[in-house]
Specification:
single chain, mainly alpha, 16 helices, about 0% strand, globular
């Protein structure tokens, strides 16, 4: 466990490179499954994966996949449901139970391993794009490292995914710095590397999510961190801009123009996604009670692709049951983050930031059972709950020692 789980966390962001050919299974998934089986056969998994909100979380997952099951059966398209339902069960039930069973120290190593994995991915991607052209990278390395328009996918394999893992990595990095688990000079270097990858991915959603998440952690946890880490990193970025350092053209086109003009239609594929959202909204009236079933939206849509808005997608594919299930999952995450803030402010704020990033991406993506989307926030929540559990065990021990000393 001490070896396999941190390795799995390292490869959590290396989706495309660490993925089995033509399968939605990665090296990370295999390692997590091995760890889950090992713990299940030795001592059992922890069913209280979300603290006080565990029941709400489990009910939300059941409603989410249950609504899609009803729709699949009603439309005679059952074969796809075991795949989608199994992916959601693995990602939202088995993984959090596995993580919550682990110790705080092991989860802390997993968090650092994730940061190092993301930073390594960005270093490789930036080095390749800085030294080789697109054709050479595509021919000899991987066609997913960089897109035709110059956006960095790195080892994640897709620019928007790369922006997401960079954002989650920044949260873990701040958490480690605040808790003195990494030297700040190393953290500043890792932060600059991750930010470079984030900029090169040219993802408006990623930049927006990263900005919101970092501000949440800095403002709500420790303002002292602004002076010791955030300001030096900001000064380095400012100096780079003032000295007219090169900025990827894709970033200027997809992110910079939208920020400077305040026009969201300039942000990436905003217009195209709006068309799909309008179609999904119009279709929802016919699918409220019984949805289209798993992947039914893709078959029904005139555009032949799922809407990039998770709430509308599950509403159409699973009806109101799946929609309520997804909402219950999100409420459980939010409420648990608030509860954790009252017990350990830093852990709770980082969970809140992780939830904010996950929520932002649910508004701009289809199904999110891929572990690179939900694995990082689940690791944040498991880390926070493990800290509370460890504290709860230390306090009674101290009380017993006090009574032993004062006893006659």
């Amino acid at each position: 466990m001490a070896l396999l789980l941190p390795v799995a966390a390292f490869f959590l962001s290396w989706w495309q490179v660490g993925r089995l050919p033509n399968l939605n299974i990665s090296i990370c998934d295999i390692l997590l499954l091995v760890c889950a089986v090992a713990i299940l056969t030795s001592r059992g998994l922890n069913g209280a994966m979300f603290g006080r909100m565990s029941i709400a979380w489990i009910m939300g997952v059941i409603l989410l996949i249950g609504g899609m099951l009803v729709g699949s059966l009603a439309h005679g398209e059952f074969l796809r449901w075991p795949v989608v339902g199994g992916q959601y069960a693995f990602a939202f039930l088995l993984i959090p139970m596995l993580l919550t069973t682990c110790s705080r120290s092991l989860l802390e190593r997993c968090a650092i391993a994730y940061v190092l994995g993301v930073a390594t991915s960005q270093a490789i991607g930036v080095a390749l794009t800085g030294t080789l052209d697109y054709e050479t990278i595509t021919r000899y390395v991987n066609r997913h490292v960089v897109t035709g328009n110059g956006r960095l996918g790195a080892m994640t394999g897709e620019p928007n995914s790369n922006g997401a893992v960079c954002t989650f990595a920044l949260i873990f990095l701040l958490h480690a710095v605040i808790n003195n688990r990494i030297r700040r000079v190393y953290a500043a270097g890792l932060a600059l590397l991750i930010i470079a990858g984030l900029v090169a991915s040219a993802s408006f959603t990623g930049v927006a999510a990263a900005t919101i998440a970092v501000l949440l952690v800095l403002v709500l946890s420790q303002l002292r961190l602004v002076v010791t880490l955030a300001i030096p990193v900001a000064l380095a970025i400012t100096a780079y801009v003032v000295l007219d350092g090169p900025v990827p053209a894709a970033f200027e086109q997809r992110v910079g123009e939208a920020v400077m003009t305040g026009d969201p239609t300039k942000a990436g594929t905003f217009v195209g996604r709006t068309v799909l959202i309008k179609e999904a909204w119009d279709m929802a009236d016919q699918n409220l009670v019984i949805g289209l079933g798993s992947d039914g939206y893709r078959r029904t849509s005139v555009y032949g692709m799922p809407v990039h808005q998770l709430y509308l997608l599950v509403l159409n594919e699973g009806g109101v049951l799946s929609f309520l299930g997804l909402c219950l999952i999100m409420v459980a995450m939010l409420v648990e983050a608030i509860i954790l803030m009252g017990r350990n402010r830093v852990d709770g704020v980082c969970c809140l930031a992780g939830f904010a990033v996950f929520f932002i991406y649910t508004m701009s993506l289809p199904h999110m059972f891929g572990r690179m989307w939900n694995g990082p926030p689940l690791l944040l929540f498991a880390l926070a709950n493990a800290g509370i559990h460890a504290l709860g065990q230390r306090v009674p021990a101290g009380i017993r020692e006090h009574h032993r000393r004062v006893a006659p």
